[in-house]
Specification:
Layout (H helix, E strand, L loop, with lengths): L30 E4 L4 E4 L24 E3 L6 E3 L1 E2 L13 E4 L17 E7 L4 E2 L5 E3 L4 E3 L8 E4 L1 E2 L12 E3 L8 E4 L20 E4 L6 E6 L12 E3 L8 E4 L1 E2 L12 E2 L3 E5 L5 E7 L12 E3 L6 E3 L1
Length: about 300
């Protein structure tokens, strides 16, 4: 009887898929070919950050077919393409997006052509940004609600207070410092609170003040000599942007203040943390023109260039 032998040449053990040699390739998503062993190993996925905060390359390489692209911030694993090429060389459903600098000007590749990256297209409500390489449909805007965040969410832009661009149940909400710019989104019910980073927005005409663990909605106003707030409320500017005002009860100097709880000082006061852990409104002053009440002095606030009576 003729003996038969199993020919094992070219086979690889499970969990260590073989990859093509010279050039190395053929590995799946999130894998790269080790040129020494000719086997596929773990790698950074498409759109993943590929450098640390100091600009050093990470331990894992970018997946096969991609490279660490430093023309964007943060650097990510990407595939370059020519935005002017027709048809695009990017695999569907990706398309070739032009890479721009901080001023919005297109970046040119080493060969003089426009630099582009293959990236996905995000619809309204989907994640967008350099990390993950997915950008909003041209009719939408990528909005970042957290400073320093790597990704945002796509929304249809609109012009408050109302805009035909928004379809029911969406409304045109002014969620930015500029009240003339808004997004189409579904507002929260009245007095329900807000967390814009989670898509929980204030009703039209209100603005969200969020200290980081959930915010509250306040009626929006414009700080200045004319006060449009109802009843005993005043138009206060409790944020770092003096053009953004909210209608709230104003605490006088000496009164308690806690912005997280909706307690704000009047326009001439500062909320200062006291030794007992509480906070109190103090009148603003200057050493050149001290106007403090009897028995108080104009003192510099520790860690601040401002002065207050105390």
């Amino acid at each position: 009887m003729r003996r038969m032998a199993l020919v094992a040449s070219g086979l690889a053990l499970a969990g260590a898929a073989a990859c093509n040699s010279k050039p190395c390739g053929g590995c799946g998503s999130g894998q790269a070919c080790d040129t020494a062993t000719k086997t596929c190993g773990p790698a950074l996925a498409y759109g993943a950050i590929c450098e640390d905060d100091a600009g050093a390359a990470l331990a894992l390489p970018c997946e096969d077919g991609t490279s660490c692209e430093t023309a964007v911030s943060p650097p990510v694993c990407a595939t370059t393409c020519d935005p002017a090429a027709t048809p695009t060389t990017c695999p569907a459903p990706q398309q070739c997006w032009t890479v721009t600098d901080s001023s919005g000007s297109p970046i040119t590749a080493a060969d003089g052509t426009l630099l582009g990256y293959c990236a996905g297209i995000s619809s309204a409500g989907q994640i967008c940004g350099v990390v993950g390489l997915s950008f909003c449909d041209p009719s939408l805007s990528c909005v970042f609600f957290v400073d320093g965040a790597n990704d945002g969410v796509c929304f249809a832009p609109c012009a408050p207070p109302s805009d035909a661009a928004c379809t029911t149940p969406n409304e045109c909400l002014a969620v930015f410092a500029d009240p003339t710019v808004g997004i189409c989104a579904i507002p929260q019910p009245a007095d329900a609170g807000c967390v814009q980073a989670e898509g929980l927005f204030c009703p039209e005409g209100q603005i969200c003040l969020d200290p980081g663990d959930g915010g509250a909605c306040f009626e929006r106003c414009t700080p200045g000599p004319t006060d449009s707030c109802p009843g005993t409320q005043s138009c206060l500017a409790p944020t770092t942007d003096d053009t953004v005002g909210i209608c709230a009860e104003a605490e006088q100097p000496g009164g308690p203040c806690n912005p997280n709880a909706g307690e704000f000082c009047d326009s001439a006061g500062l909320c200062i943390l006291e030794d007992d852990g509480g906070a109190t409104c103090h009148q603003v002053c200057s050493e050149e023109e001290p106007t403090c009440p009897t028995g108080q002095s104009c003192l510099q606030i520790e860690g601040s260039p401002l002065d207050a009576c105390g």
